[in-house]
Amino acid sequence: MKSGEEDWLEDLARARSESNPGARLLAAARELFNAQGYQVAGINEIIKRAGASKKSFYSYYPGKKQLGAAYLRAEANDFAVQLRRRISRYDRDFNGFARSWAAFLRRQAGKGDFHGCPFASAAVQAHDDFGELLAELHTEWLALMREYILHCKPRIKAHAADTIARRILLDYQGAVMMWRLSGDLRYFDLLAQSLQDLKMNSDDV
């Protein structure tokens, strides 16, 4: 017998078709959660932005928490796509990956398409609701970066690759946070440099 969570996840899969209200609701939620924050953006505003009805909303999402989880998974998918795109393009070229990723973030921030890290925002605003999901996503990103580091440097030890993967995420969060605080795009240039300065050839990181 399916759980309630499995049922709404199936509804979410159907919502990915742009021809139905579920897709519009998720798109509206992503816009408003990113621009205003999860706590501020309300269900009624999301429904209005999507051009949907309350009945449509509740046929796809039992409540705001489930919509928030769908939003985070959609954002996580985009985040992973950007990482994988650069991993594929810069096969065994970590410095190229670092420069490309930082330049992408700088461009997004510069043209207003980036509102900071949605996962950090969710952790601050609604950790009780999303703490478990965020921990799961964090584990996935670490695994992705470890795999790439080991691919770039096959001789590096596993514990060193793990530390470098954590440093990558730490540097990313630091650059994004400082940009949000200051509006200074140069923090993304420093991100590129910081990542390239990582001791990729060392076992003792």
Short synopsis of the structure:
This protein is mainly α and 205 residues long. It contains nine helices and no strands.
Provide an overview of this structure:
The protein is mainly alpha-helical. It has helices spanning 4-15, 21-36, 43-50, 54-60, 64-89, 94-110, 118-152, 158-182, 186-196. The chain is elongated and about 55 Å long.
Low-pLDDT residue spans:
none
Q: Please report the distance between the alpha carbons of the first and last residues.
A: 48 Å
Supply Rg. Answer: 19 Å
Largest sheet geometry: none
Percent helix among the residues? Answer: over 70%
Order of helices and strands: HHHHHHHHH
Beta-strand residue percentage: under 5%
Mean pLDDT value: 90
Number of strands: 0
Instruction: Note the total helix count.
Output: 9
**How many distinct domains?**
2
Overall shape:
elongated
What structural class do the secondary elements suggest? mainly alpha
Keywords for this entry:
single chain, 205 residues, mainly alpha, Arc Repressor Mutant, subunit A, 77% helix
Strand and helix map with partners:
Blueprint: H1 4-15, H2 21-36, H3 43-50, H4 54-60, H5 64-89, H6 94-110, H7 118-152, H8 158-182, H9 186-196
Helix pairs in contact: 1-2, 2-3, 2-5, 5-6, 5-7, 6-9, 7-8, 8-9
